[in-house]
Amino acid sequence: MVEAVSERLPVVVLRSNDVCFLGIVRSLAAAGIRAIAVTFSWSGSGPWYSEASRHLDEVHRIANPFEEPQRAADEVAELGAALLERFGERLLVLGSSDTNLVFLRDNATRFARFFRFVGDPAMEEGPFELLHKATCAERLEAGGVSAPFTRHCRSADDVDRIVDEMIYPCVIKPAIKDYGQSFYARHDGDKALSVDGPGELRSRLGEELAAGFDLLVQEKIAFDSVHDEIPFYLYADAGHRIRLAATGVKEKIQPFPFGTATVLRLSYHPELLEHAREVVQALAFRGILMIEFIRDAKDGAWKVIELNPRPWLFVDFYRRFGLNYLGRLVDDRDGQLVAGEDLQTADDETLALPPMHVSLPPACGEYLESLGRAARVQDVRDWLRGIAGARSLTFLDPDDPAPGLAELGDFASRWQLDAGSLVSCVREESCGV
Question: Considering just the CA atoms, what is the radius of gyration of the chain in Å?
Fold first, then answer.
């Protein structure tokens, strides 16, 4: 029997990355949408701070797809069948990591009977073609989008040609990720390897191919400052029109230079809008998309080096400052986008704050480690005050504080700080918490 619901249809959310997952759940809640959570764990994972969120009222646990892919797929299909019977139609499903998207892609034919995917114009087929970086690069090139010189390395037969053709220096990336993020694990969290010349490239490709990786080799773009490597966050509607847009400035990256931003400033770079529109049109994209732009120091041109067709780590941070990308998604799903509505960006008053995302444990932890002595709460205060603007911590949301308090408790324990004093310090030095 179909469940009678007075609210809008929920959204199914897979948890893999805790930050992104919690951001999705909070963003949906702010838009009046329930999240149906699908979670799994593994040895060495966690802690899962999202489990303390007040917004989680329905959680389904499955096997870890990395360890038991068939069992995990069976359990998601069983859940999908139950939800289809319960609600009378297929629900949207979102992933909180690239590995979630790979899992959905690998089972797309089976799961499509029960779920809808985000990325294509009909919200049916998903963005799965874009998960392979070589295929994505071909789509961008066909659409006339400016990007670095790129080659796909599938086997040892490709090495000689790529070594001869490549522009140096260059970087090596996994062309497609696996469930266990094996490339990152192999290289201490780095998302790419930097290579200076032909001999090193030949050696590196041999090593990575022997380890079983499908690879992308890309010209390394030289740029001058953090203002020349800009992620562009957007929502595009069924007509591939950008309806919501913002950018970010990566004030701190860990590990540098190919890691994740742990301090990021919300910004807007209007000069990138037309470039972003070219990408959306080339991909015929509908949904949430992050485009990584780099301004090439050689010619001053903005070039696309990365795409992410799902909610990103900072989606909750942007929501807190008035840009709810998941709210826009469900409005689009439900036919509630206003026709002819102007592009929404952060207003000047918000940008003037400026909003600053802070991932405290890795970013401040590095500073405390550098002191070479026992840490103090005052050290944390001093470090936070070195970040000018409206500081907003990853997990600590005033409307949903428990996950952030749990994270601060662990941080205090790690550095032998008084938890109560630390929480008071963070609340005094952060915006809206």
Answer: 22
